[in-house]
Design goal:
- The structure is a single chain.
- This protein is an alpha/beta fold.
- The chain has 10 helices and 8 strands.
- It has an 8-stranded parallel beta barrel, surrounded by 5 helices.
- It is globular, with a radius of gyration of 18 Å.
- The protein starts with 7 loop residues before the first strand and ends with a helix.
- The structure holds flavin-adenine dinucleotide.
- The site of flavin-adenine dinucleotide has 24 residues, from strand 3, strand 4, helix 4, helix 5 and strand 6.
C-alpha cells in the first residue's frame, strides 16, 4: 500500500505543558511530516481549562508551516466566548475542526451552554456558515454513556444532520467492529466518511488505562500477547506495530478511506506501524 492509497491521514496531538514538551512535539511533527498528513489536530481539555493550550499549540504548529487544526469542546462557555474563539481560529487560517462534547464531569460544567456535540456543530454552522470543515467523534464499540448502539448511531446522525462533514472513530482493536458500524451508519442514512481512529501500541499499562477510560476493548488474544511482552519494550513495540498495521489493512479492505492516528505526541510508534503499512 502507498500513501496515495490513503485518501486521508491525520495525526492527533495534545497541547504540551513545558518548553521541553513543546520541543518534543515539534520534533514529532517534523518526523511525521514525511507521511504528508492532511492535518495535525490538537486536543482541547474539558471545561475550557486547556483552551489556551490548544490555541497556542495550533498557532505554534501553523507558524512552523504545519496544517494544525483544533479540537473544540464545550465546557463553561457562553455562546459569545465560543464565537470569539471560532473567530480567532478563522483569523489564523484554520480550515477544519474536530467538534466534541468533551469529557466533562458534572461538577465542572459551570455555565452550561451546550449539552451535546450536535449543539456545538449547529452553533458553528449558524455563526460561521461553511467557513470550517467539521469532524465529529463516533464510537464503533458504542459510547460508554449510550443506552444502545442504535441510539448512539441516531445521535451520530443528529451531528451529521447538524452539519458535520466527517466522522472520526474512537480507537478500537477488534477489526469486525468497523464494518459492522459502517453498515449500521449507512443504514441509518449517514453518508459522510467514517475515518477509523487508530492507536499505536507503545506502552502496555498506559494502553490499558486509556482503554478503560474511553471504553475501547482490548481483545483477550491481544491482551495476552501484549502482556507477555510487557517487560520487553522493543518486542512490545515491534509486535504492536505489526498488529496495528494489520488492523489498518483490514479497515482499508472493509471500506475505510483513510485513518486518524492518536499519536500521544510520540513519533516512533506511529512511524513504526506506518512503515509496515505503507511498504506492503
Ligand atoms: P456527543 O456526541 O455529545 O455524545 C456523548 C453521549 O451523549 C453519547 O453517549 C451520545 O449517545 C449521547 N447523546 C448525544 N446526543 C444526545 C442527545 N441529543 N440526547 C441524549 N443523548 C445524547 N475529549 C476531550 O475532552 N477533548 C478532546 O480533544 C477530545 N478529542 C476526541 C477526538 C475524537 C476523534 C474522539 C472520538 C473523542 C475525543 N474526545 C475528546 C472524547 C470525547 O469528548 C468523549 O468521548 C465524550 O464523552 C463524547 O464526546 P462526543 O463529541 O462524541 O459527544
Amino acid at each position: 500500500m502507498e500513501r496515495s492509497d490513503l485518501s486521508h491521514l491525520s495525526f492527533e496531538f495534545f497541547p504540551p505543558k513545558t518548553p521541553r514538551e513543546t520541543r518534543n512535539l515539534l520534533r514529532t511533527a517534523n518526523r511525521l511530516a514525511e507521511f504528508h498528513p492532511d492535518f495535525y489536530s490538537v486536543t482541547h481539555g474539558a471545561g475550557g481549562s486547556a483552551r489556551e493550550g490548544t490555541l497556542e499549540t495550533v498557532s505554534m504548529l501553523r507558524e512552523h508551516g504545519y496544517n494544525a487544526i483544533p479540537h473544540i469542546t464545550w465546557g463553561g462557555d457562553t455562546r459569545e466566548s465560543m464565537v470569539s474563539l471560532l473567530a480567532r481560529y478563522a483569523d489564523i487560517g484554520v480550515s477544519d475542526m474536530v467538534v466534541l462534547r468533551g469529557d466533562v464531569g458534572e461538577d465542572t460544567l459551570g455555565e452550561i451552554s451546550f449539552r451535546h456535540a450536535h449543539e456545538l456543530v449547529s452553533l458553528i454552522r449558524e455563526e460561521m456558515g461553511n467557513r470550517f470543515r467539521l469532524h465529529v467523534g463516533c464510537y464503533p464499540e458504542m459510547h460508554p454513556e449510550a443506552e444502545s448502539i442504535d441510539v448512539d448511531i441516531d445521535r451520530l446522525k443528529e451531528k451529521v444532520d447538524a452539519g458535520a462533514d466527517c466522522c472520526i472513530t474512537q480507537y478500537f482493536f477488534n477489526p469486525d467492529a468497523y464494518p459492522a458500524f459502517l453498515d449500521n451508519c449507512r443504514q441509518a442514512g449517514i453518508r459522510k466518511p467514517i475515518l477509523p481512529g487508530v492507536m499505536p501500541i507503545a506502552n502496555f499499562q498506559k494502553l490499558i488505562q486509556f482503554s478503560e477510560k474511553c471504553g475501547a476493548e482490548i481483545p483477550r488474544w491481544l491482551m495476552m500477547q501484549l502482556r507477555s511482552r510487557e517487560h520487553d519494550p522493543d518486542q512490545l513495540r515491534a509486535y504492536g506495530a505489526d498488529v496495528v498495521a494489520n488492523l489498518c489493512r483490514r479497515l482499508m479492505a472493509d471500506g475505510a478511506s483513510g485513518i486518524h492516528v492518536y499519536t500521544l505526541n510520540l513519533a516512533r510508534p506511529t512511524q513504526a506501524f506506518l512503515a509496515l503499512l505503507l511498504d506492503s
